[in-house]
Amino acid sequence: GQQLNQSPQSMFIQEGEDVSMNCTSSSIFNTWLWYKQEPGEGPVLLIALYKAGELTSNGRLTAQFGITRKDSFLNISASIPSDVGIYFCAGWAGSQGNLIFGKGTKLSVKP
Amino acid sequence: DGGITQSPKYLFRKEGQNVTLSCEQNLNHDAMYWYRQDPGQGLRLIYYSQIVNDFQKGDIAEGYSVSREKKESFPLTVTSAQKNPTAFYLCASRTKRGTYQPQHFGDGTRLSIL
Fold this sequence. Notes:
By secondary structure, chain A is an all-beta fold. Helix content of chain A is 0%, strand content 54%. Chain A is built from no helices and 11 strands.
């Protein structure tokens, strides 16, 4: 079945640093989503991307839908302690397909 | 407030026991989903329902059952056939009207074995 490779698996950064994570796939997606999950809670949608090449921002977060439609990245600028959590990418191939999730990037921010 | 409510927050299962996890949404969403989350494995789809009185198996349906008798409710039963039920269970829903709309999630139920 379809799989998403999300990297890195984990990141330990200093407050104020920028963060970059990405997802790649061997197949094409029509929609890319980025979610953030905090401990003991459900994932919360951060950014949705619907068009190849699309670049979308949400505050300090910026995500892009790759031109090939097989990848997406998420950048966080000037990280703060509340950015801590697990970030998931998810792709939707269209039609009757279901959402496919990456395994997550666990972000730790040192004050 | 509109949202997805999962209950209970924590649940314990004894050997040979079936347990039911509740998921209710007041968003008027058509489709509902159940995922299982294990550490380092991301989210795996158990069952989903696109319309009332209809549901389909996901990738890991064995040992689980669901029903969709009402649009707003999609309970998940973890049966005794599920030998490794300890996990975090997430329910999600989305509308199917118009262009693709992302899923929104509840806050999960953590199931443990006694």
